[in-house]
Amino acid sequence: MFDFDNWAEIFSSMGKNKMRMFLTGFSISWGIFMFCILFSAGNGLKNGITSNFGDRSVNRSSFWGRTTSLPYKGLPDKRRIKLDDNDLNLVKKIPGITGVSGRVYKSATASYKTFSSSSSFLGVNPDYQQIYNIKMEKGRFINAPDIAGYRKTAVINRRMQEVLFQGEEPLGKQILVGNLGYTVIGVYRESESSETGSDPMAYIPFSTAQRLYGGGWGIDEITFTVTDVDSKEKNEVFEKNLRRRESILHTFDPKDERALGISGVIDTYLQTLGIFNGISAFIWIIGLGTLIAGVISVSNIMLITVRERTREFGIRKALGAKPRAILGSILMESIFITGVFGYFGMFLGIGFSELVNSILTGMDNDISFAFRNPTMDVSLAVGAMIILIISGVVAGYYPALKAVRIPPVEAMKLEN
Which pTM value belongs to this model? Predict the structure, then answer.
């Protein structure tokens, strides 16, 4: 039941000790505020790191032929391993493979009317869009009829569109690559589909690129996604199995790691994840340190408060106040101050992080790329505030209990 007299006494006590109340409240607000800022910053860094992998498959892998370094079954070393359609069919039969695409590279000058651009073209299969999570701005990506019909179609990026078409609608128009004309069927977002080491200006059907630029059969590289490869150990097992299968097809020593180049995004992802885990642990340590500092501050202030009010407790007991009532008013005052100022600090911390997030959302630069959505779970902030409230209550309870047990005469003799 709400006791008006009790709360009036609490507010009166707070009014008489404004400095003490301010120091207690500031310690609580600052602790919660810094706790929210640190964890929001940690989440922003985490989101920035994971966003670099969020637009592409982290279980993506690719391989290409290189030169053997070991003789094998009477065959000499330094033989060139050349990939072809047999390799493509082999990969498709490996359990766990969810998407496969060959790649054929071609560098050429593309032109439209009087405009031209030195460009890179990459022949790919339809699965390539899923492998790299390519986002289309307009039009469509390469499809099965393009592959089957050896069509001369192209998917360009925004940069190529701006250089060649100068504001003109590109879909349905033809660009010249040498003496060949390619019909533009789509425009993709280059920032979301950038690849390791390169960012092709245009995608064309794999069958067309293979026929025109790969000698009718060659493949520069094969890329794919694989399921259930979520650790470095599993990745090593998968690569060993892939190398063994390829060694049978091309007759080279399965232990010859130079015969086949294999690249997996999961290696980079796991390394980056390890760095992030270290940063996350550091943020937790700093955050908990800040929270502990707040707990210590609240505890010290509560101890000082009880010591200063011991004489007051003696007077109140001499006037007939019950020890339980005195103790209850102290704890209620502690909970009230901690709760109000803790909520204020949480409001400022979360509000500041949301303000930063809104600013970054409208930015398109290196900061927003590496630091994204710096917000935190409200429940985490509430939990921190509850910890401070409990610490304040515990810190004040035992010395207050000891103080109210002092006989009134002895308590009134104590000096503040």
Answer: 0.61
